[in-house]
Amino acid sequence: MNKGPRQRFSSALAVLAISVVCIIAIIPVLWGLVTSLKPTEQILTFPPQWIPWPISLDSFEKVLYQSNVLLYFRNSVIVTVASLVVSLSLAIHAAYGLSRFKFWGHSAILIGVLTTSMIPGVAILVPLYGLSVKTGLYDTFLGLILVYSAWNVPILIWLMKGFFDKVPIELEEAALVDGASRWRVFYQIVLPLSQPGLVSGAIMVVMFVWNDFVIGFALTISEERRPLSVGLYTYISNYGVEWGQLMAATVIALTPVLLVFLLLQRRLVEGLAAGAIKG
Amino acid sequence: MRQVSANLQIENVPSSVFAMRINWFALVFIAPALLLVLMVSLYPVVDALTLSVFDTRFAQRLDFIGTENYVELIRDPSIYQDIVNSFTYTFFSLAVVLPYGLGVALLLNRDLPIRGLYRTLAIMPWVFSQTITALLWAWLINSDFGPVTHAVQFVTGTRPAVLSSPSGAMGALIGVNVWASYPMATLLFLAALQTIPRELFEAAEVDGAGAVRRFFYITLPLIRHTALVVIIQLTLLYFNMVTLIYIFTGGGPIGETETLALRVLKISFEDWELGRGAALGVFITLVNLFFSLVYVRALRNPTDE
Question: With a cut of 70, which residues of chain B have pLDDT below it?
Fold first, then answer.
């Protein structure tokens, strides 16, 4: 297609428009970062100053050494990793079972499982709180991990079943004939072939758990168990609003997700498009 | 060997004794996940129903009081304000996100230089949690030191205190919500746009259809199904949203941005009226159920002929 002046004008307009969109998308993050790098006296100025100069790491030092943010960070890492392991291992087995065997109640299970993922999180927060108190899992990592896993398993099952369904059954039959056990067939043939699904699912769980606020808010009380998202919120009340420190803590909290996003964007999009919105 | 192939069969299993026999292998694979989901997702729903008909003190169930929790909710006039807020929030967020999300998708679908970079930046807000979004924006529009405040003052001459005026707070909240959630719409629209064959547009262009007509007669009909998915998913997301609102405005000023979902959180974990919180939770679940049914129906018969 040859480009006339009209096309060129419309292209220029499109570039301008998308640039504006991108600027709006990154400005809040940029402003947070700028604030976190300013010395205290430059933070509270009006009109605001866009260039932090001299760059100061005061806010980060205070956050890292004089607050509990590192502790919250550790808590979030523990809960995220454990939830990832638990939910993935439960979901892949269930998905394989549902992909390879037909039995009475098969589709009822599939639909039922999917329906539970439509229950609004906030509506069952109270019973979950009661349940965790009753079972002694209130304010424990295990309590958080179980809830996060249960909330992610349904979508993971559907995601992984889709991938397992595509693995040719002849491959498995051949291996079984050669004497491999069912387990070995699953772990050494089917799983490796479904790796893209595993990666997408894993990212989906990590983002969900790392970003969640309500479950951590409802099911933890002590500093030793509080996840980072809730910790950020309590930061405001505990220290008054120290914006420099709050933004430094925010930058610390968003760095992991930003890294995952930049490195694994394609997989992330696939995983999240698979459906999970809860909370 | 025979048994192997019988077990591996995924299509119609003959309705013989084989099919009815319990397959222990399948059971071991499926049961643990099912058990966890039953305990953590299904049991709480049942529990919420029972809890909602009891008087409670913290996590303790006191007397059976029937529908009193529900009646109390209905009698409380502020609940109606919450309902109105929920719908205002959901409706206006959608009204902005749909055109904006679609517009961004249309832009990203063009042959632009450095399209990859534009795409990355444009959908970046998606990965930030509602907590982080709320904190970043609260600082950005801070009435004393925020750059947005400064820009507005520069243009209009008055310094706005957005979050302390009722309509300002709701407007700002919706704006922030749009910022956080349009990328999802954009990505789904973009995926749909990429399936439309280019020849369709070229043919229409040859026939003399302008850009506007091409959009309304080719693009829009072909992405209707996706638009439906986007609308329903976002409706549920907005209606159930608590974190962003709780952290950004806390429901204030004077309850002007308090939605039903946020009210559940406040009744339950600030007033510790768990029975009433559960009752309101049941109501919200019913609304969700309604939306989900509409969803399933709409997807089952895509109305294009």
Answer: 1-22, 58-59, 301-305
pLDDT average, residue stretch A236-265: 85
Partner A contacted by B7 (CB < 8 A): yes
| Nearest CA-CA partner of B252 in B159, B155, B138, B156 | B138
Q: Which of A7, A22, A37, A126 to mutate to test the interface with B (most CBs of B within 10 A)?
A: A126
pTM above 0.90, yes or no: no
Q: Is A237 exposed, middle or buried (0-12, 13-18, 19+ CB in 10 A)?
A: exposed
Residue type, B145: F
Within-domain flag for A111: yes
CB-count exposure of residue A141 (10 Å: 0-12, 13-18, 19+): middle
Q: How far is CA B225 from CA B95, B188, B304, in A?
A: 18, 11, 9
> Per the domain annotation, does A62 fall within a domain?
no
Tell me the nearest-neighbour CA distance from B166 into chain A, angstroms.
Answer: 23
The C-alpha angle with vertex B117 and arms to B216 and B228, in degrees rounded to 5, equals 35
CATH of B80-300, one of 1.10.287.500, 1.10.10.10, 1.20.120.80, 1.10.3720.10: 1.10.3720.10
- Interacting residues of A2 by C-beta distance below 8 A, sequence separation 6+: none
Residue A132 and residue A217 in contact, taking contact as beta carbons nearer than 8 Å? no
Q: Is A103 in Cβ contact with B23 (below 8 Å)?
A: yes
* ipTM of this complex prediction, to 2 decimal places: 0.88
The closest CB to that of A147, out of B9, B40, B236, belongs to: B40
B203 touches chain A (CB under 8 A): no
Enclosing H/E stretch for B54: strand B54-57
Q: Are residues A142 and A268 in the same domain?
A: yes
Q: How confident is the model at residue A89 (pLDDT cuts 50, 70, 90)?
A: very high
Top residue of B56, B73, B135 to mutate, by most chain A CBs within 10 Å, is: B135
Q: Hey, are the CB atoms on A91 and B33 less than 8 Å from each other?
A: yes
